[in-house]
Design brief:
This protein is mostly helical. The protein is built from 20 helices and no strands. It has helices spanning 2-20, 26-31, 38-49, 52-65, 72-92, 100-107, 110-143, 147-193, 199-202, 205-208, 217-230, 235-242, 247-278, 288-296, 302-333, 342-366, 370-379, 382-394, 401-420, 426-444. The longest helix is centred in the middle third of the chain and has 47 residues, at 147-193.
Amino acid sequence: MWAFLTFFLLVQFFIGFWISRRIKNNTDFFLAGRSLPSYLIVFSLFATWFGAETCIGTSSEVYTHGLSGSRADPIGYSLCLLLFGLLIVRKFYSSKFVTLADFYKSRFHFSIEKLSVMILVPSSLIWGAAQIKAFGQIISFATDLTPEITLSISFFILVSYTLLGGLLGDIITDLIQGILITIGLIAILVITLNLEIDWSLALSPERLSFTAPGENIWQRIDRLMIPIFGSLVSIELISRILAAKNKSIAIKSTYYSSIIYFFVGSIPVFLGLMGPSLVKDLPNSENFLFILAKTYLPSFIAPLFIGALISAILATIDSILISSTAMIEQNFIEPFIKEKTDQFKLKISRTVLITLSLFSFATAYSSDGIYQLVETASSFGTAGILVITLFGLWGKRGHILAPLVTLILGLILHPIFEHYLALSAPYFASIIVCFLAYFLLSTLEKRPAV
């Protein structure tokens, strides 16, 4: 197993190294030269969203709690990709933008640009911490090393891999990784369906219920809205549609990736449902997929499946780090850089990437679980980001006051509603308040004439 994983990672590194020779400037590093065809965008969108929370986190939660354990997959993120194409890409696509924050600066004000970066980047890095933690789980399973050591190893591998190829390397390997994880999941599904399964246990009413014991309808809605709307305005998705050849490719790619995600994302959910009748009494349910593969897959297929899981994680983490680095470099650092040569700016970008990676590593090290990290990332200030983006794209109201107050409210309301007021639907309530705040304040301020 260890030898295969080493070989698999070396192949990934070779691809990244080969791509790195084509990177001449930050446009190549961040946006792949804005020249990507539809099939690459489709698989890249799918592979970016299909990360640790889908494979490891979702299967783990469904194994433990049944369908009530997961609201994000496959419906949540599939709808997110579909709405992304309908509401965001159709209005947003423009060759002049490098990052999402560039749009906020153009549509609103530079202060909104800066504040949005301070919200979007930490949210993405928390999501990145979930991927690092999942990668550490795989190495721990394959080597029996301590969690501290495996997290350190996974951090080194993921950062080195991302530094090489930039977005172009990321997207090309996304194609390979998306195909691998799809084949791997289908293989384990087919094999496990031919085993003796206690269907009365797997499909019991308790395990098929979308509502957890004691959960009300508002809590259920809130949990589903977090993946749909909390991830709708994502810097990782934005970077991919900006890299597309044209607007038509960008829009259609989101629809196709949504369909692929729904069907492939259903497999970890179904495996989690069958889990208790196949693998009993797991002390750590996040090891469920690994143990399932090791127990039931043929010895020559099991390493391929583990490699497929690594592919899903690599596809997500490099997207996160590159997109976050682009926002910090483009919207915070570049205005102060005196030396404007392409090579110097590339060095700055790679230094920023390493720094942000350390933040994700520290978050992963101090966290308890993968799925909790993903939910935190999706709700961290995203209510305000969602509202100002939709108003900014589809309306003309609002300049500084409305988006500024909305972003601040989006950042502070969710924890207040959840921890202090104990609302049943804190995220949903945050969106409603942010929407009303923007609407009311935007009627009071007039956008300066251009």
